[in-house]
Amino acid sequence: MSDRITGFVVAVLALAFFASASQLEQPFFADPLGPKAFPMVVAGVAMVAAILMIIKPDAEPNWPAFAVLGRIAIATLILVIYAYGLKPLGFLLPTALAAGAVSYQIDPKFSNAAKIGIGLSGGLFVIFKFGLGLSLFALPRWMMG
Amino acid sequence: MDLFANLALGFSVALSPTTLSLAVIGCVLGTIIGALPGLGPANGVAILIPLSFSFDLDATQALVLMTSVYYGAMYGGRISSILLNIPGDEPAMMTTLDGYPMAKKGRAGDALVLSGVASFVGAFLATIGLMLLAPLLARVAFLFGPAEYFALYLLAFCTLGGLGSKNQSKAAIAVCLGLGIAMIGVDNSTGLTRFTGGSLHLFDGIDFLVAIVGLFAVSEVFIFIESHGKDSAIGIKLEKITIPVKDIVNSKWTMLRSSAIGFIAGLLPGAGASLGSFLAYMVEKSVSKDKDSFGTGNPRGVAAPEAGNNAAAGGALVPMLTLGVPGSGTTAVLLALLMTLNITPGPLLFTERPEVVWGLIASLLIANFVLLILNIPLVKVFSRLLQVPAAILLPGVTMISFVGIFSLSGSYFDLLLMIGFGVLGYALRKLSIPTVPVILGILLGSHMEVSLRRAMVLSDGDWTYLFATPISLGLWAAALIGFIAPIFLRSYLTIPKPIKEEK
Lengths: 145, 503
Prior knowledge:
The complex is a heterodimer of chains A (145) and B (503). Chain A is an all-alpha fold. Helices cover 73% and strands 0% of the residues of chain A. In chain A, α4 (92-106) crosses α5 (110-131). Chain B is mainly α. The model of chain B has no long low-confidence stretch (mean pLDDT 85). Chain B has a domain at 2-147 and 234-433. At the A-B interface, α1, α2, α3, α4 and α5 of A face α7, α8, α18, α19 and α20 of B.
């Protein structure tokens, strides 16, 4: 079933890609092939492969339990928040929180995860800032004055 | 003779204090990366690339550093195969078959030393092979026009997809996904923007480093969340290490045979180290007199795949440097490094930038000896790394990936894109759609399109031009065979089942 759904999604994407490519204007001074042809061929190949996948799917992959997928979703969310937080909040605080939270998703022991978060954040800051000379801000800009 | 003059140039570059110390640092880092379970050579090199730019290294130095990491990871991968029965990287898979049983018999130290020597033989011979063959191939590559390059890229996708996946249509989807992503952004020859959906962030296209780090490193974190770090840390204790002279002498022909097989496998564009170690093991098993002892801790079963995969690692550098077509996931990452350094691999590299090529080759020769020292007397130190729990390692890898990508572009959009590629990579891996063709597609997509369009300009739109020369015809035929033959050979290409661990 997973393969059939994937095949369907790929087919839809390929169709959209094909349509988007066919909308491109062909500039009159362009090379004989122009900007459309190659993407259209790629979309065509993807379409054939997707249909084959729908007709002849493999055995069902071993999906993890719902709770595990939930943990993966939480980890993804943490990383997204981290991506937004890294610039305004400085390096140390978001990194400690994100590293601790990801660590907790792998091995749910709270005190360990907290220690790992703080340790990684401090250790990596020293390596990046003083070892590699990256320009990182330790703390939020408004606290640095 | 040319060769010696070139080597002298190479060593004059390689023996400069900076380059030499970078090679040593690269070897140490590489061995660490290879030894850590869950951090293979491809994602290890991928997360280090953005950081290496902050050093302000010149092209040769950056390449020497990263290639030493690559060689080191190939050596280090065997440590967790032998001690934990978990391959440290994909090519080290075959080493678990006899390495772990040998370790269980109390010969862990012997297995590590033997495989270290085998790695050295494989890597050293392959570097010599690289030195002899690459300039010749570079000369042939001058005959390649756009039609030939187009067919060559096709060949790389076909062999990589055909051999790397159990299902041809999934491999094709992976390739198309990569090629499609490569099309995003401004089309260089007409200035039109394509497939950006109007988003300004996508005008410059998607940076392949973002995709590589996402697909390789971030997705690994999700895989570990799923496995809960369960697979780690049931190891075998390492006793005092002695040198098993008898085993080494007994397997000298094994090592030489396997090195030759591995090197040839590495040369095939798109095949790479996994195929090298697989073929080396299978050939060794079939020529051996006592086939049944393979899989139960036969020392030759340890030497063969290690010599094979290290030789393939060297062999894979030949098409990467001379033609710009990588043979494996890790060489794809190295190609990304070259492209970011504004070095175009190909025949011109050998004539215009000989100091880069020969400096690299000389450094690799030196790196091999450094790695031999690191991996035999010091193997005990590295084996301690296996005890690093996943709950520390994976968050660390994530944070390094974030800082690396962030320092590259300073944009949170790239970080989000990287997370997106991480999720995509996880889904693809669960669906057994290979991720390496996606990377290769992103890297080579625009080159492939440009060569096709150039070929059409030259022929004024005549399609038969693509098949007009014997070289391109041969490449097309090889591509077809590379994609279709594995369907029929699949029953021979299955990896023997490792011996299950008794509880």
